[in-house]
Structures are given as structure tokens and as C-alpha cells.
Amino acid sequence: TIFSSYNTAMKYYIYALFAMLMWSSSFIATKIAYQAFSPILLCLFRFSISFILLLIYRCITRQHTKIAKQDLSTVIFSAIGGISIYYTLENTALSLTSASMTSLIEACYPALTILVGILVYHEKTSKRMLSGIACSVTGVVILTGFSSASSNMAGNLLLIFAGILWGFYNYLVQKIPLHYDSLTITYYQMFFGAIGFLPLLLLEHPMIINVTPQILFSLLYLSAGCSVGAILLYNHALKGLKASHASVLMNFMPVFGIILSYLILHENITFTQIIGGIIILFGVIISTRKENA
To answer: How far is CA 74 from each of CA 71, 172, 227, 244, 289, rounded to the nearest angstrom?
Structure first.
């Protein structure tokens, strides 16, 4: 029935939204962890711990599903592009540019995903979705402001490249056969993704200084929550949503970021931020609503 189909679709949207909530909180944890770790080294530790956690869970639950050889290359490419290179770009950019500019640029990722779909995968896009994307990006511009005084152009460019990679990641994951569960896919992605950080460490001078309990907690949260939890939820959401629809929900991240900043950092929420958040939500609703028959 129409009602059951609506409930099924809504379930996948909720999975994706919880993933966005965890990812939006990762900026706070990452900034704290930067007090002790260099960006790429933090990536290596974060995803190595994530892999170990998944390995323990698979052993406890006796889930030993393997990826078939014909599907392994797709999983490896998704891990290298969507984890190793993507998070290297994001973490490096986050150390160079401001958090507000990071939120603004990452809000353009849905548009970049749609662009990848049109240019590479020849996917058709409705005027409704394009209008929703434009509305959401407008809201993010209002939300984060236009000031770039504290940002670094190199960091901004890295974030744009990361967004293009994220677009490819969405479509690569959907090429993995549906009979694999999200846990298995994420487990293999964490393994190959962690390995992928090793050669990337040559791009920086690895640093570990003044590791405190707060920093260790941030690292564990990044590993267990933002990596394992969020990616499991997002990969599962992609089983029931189009890649472009799931990516549109990334516009919630700056909204969640403001709420978390208020609750954790006790920052004031301005009228402009409220208006920007409402416009973002309106854009997401427009983009994800089905066209009339």
C-alpha cells in the first residue's frame, strides 16, 4: 500500500538523518583531537580503531560474511575514495579553514553528487530537486555567513575535491549487491580504508603530543560513533534511497552543528541562524518529495 511504502521510505530517511547528526558532531571531536594528533595520523588511528571494533563485533556475533571476488574491487575503490582520500582531504582542510566555511562548502555536496550523477552516470534530475538544492544552499549561506577572513583557500579547495569524491562514493556503494549487509560492507571498507592512510602519511609529519583523557574520549567517539555508527547507518540508508536523495540530507549537518554548539559549547542561536535552518529544511523537503504522477 501507499502508506506502507511511505513508512518504508521514511525509515531510510531516519537512518540517514542519524548519520548526519553523528557526522555533524565530528567537527567538535576532531578539533579537540587536533590538540594531540596531526590530521592524517588522526585518520589512521580513528579508522584502525573502528576496524578493530567491527572485528570484535563480528567475532562476538559470529558474522563472517565475505565479499565475493567479483565485488571486492568496488568495495576497495569505495574505501580508498570514500574513506582514505576523502577523510584525508576533510581532516587536512579542517585544520586549514574555519568550521563555518567547512559547513558551507559541505552543504554543496548534494549538488556535487547530482553533478556526478548527470555527467558520469547520466542520471536524470527533476526541476523540483534542483530547486530544493538551490533553496538548501541559500539557507546554508544565510546560516554560515559570507565571511571567509579566518579561512584558507587551500582548505576550501580540498573540501570541494572531497565533495566530488563523496559523490562518486554514493554511486559506488550502490553498485555493491544488495545481498551484503551494511555491517559487512562497512567492515571491509574500514579495513581497506585504514590501510589506505599509511602511504598518505608521507604527506605530513606525524605528530602525537599531550594526549589527555578528553582527547582519548574524542578519538573513541570519532571511531565508534562518527565512523562505525554513522557509516553503518548511511550505507543502510543507501539501500532504500537514491544516492542523490540521501546526499541532499547532508544539508541538515549545519543545522545539527548549531544545535550541538548551543548544547555543548553554550553558543547563542541568532534569528539569522533560525531563518537559515528553516530554509534548509524547506529545501530538503522539496528535494526529497516525489513528483506527482
So the answer is: 6, 7, 20, 19, 30
Torsions phi, psi for 147 (to 5 deg): -70, 135
Cβ within 8 Å of residue 93, ≥6 positions away: 102, 154, 155, 156, 158, 159, 162
Q: What is the pLDDT of residues 143-186, one digit of tens each?
A: 656 555 455 667 777 888 898 888 888 888 888 887 888 788 88
Cα dihedral sign, 32-37-38-43: negative
What H or E segment, with its residue span, contains residue 232?
A: helix 230-237
pTM of the entire predicted model: 0.77
Q: Name residue, grid cell 574513506.
A: 83
Higher per-residue pLDDT: 279 or 84: 84
The answer to whether the beta carbons of residues 93 and 158 sit under 8 Å apart is yes
- The b/e string for 160-193 (b: 16+ C-beta within 10 A; e otherwise) is bebbbbbbbbbbbbbebeeebebbbbbbbbbbbb
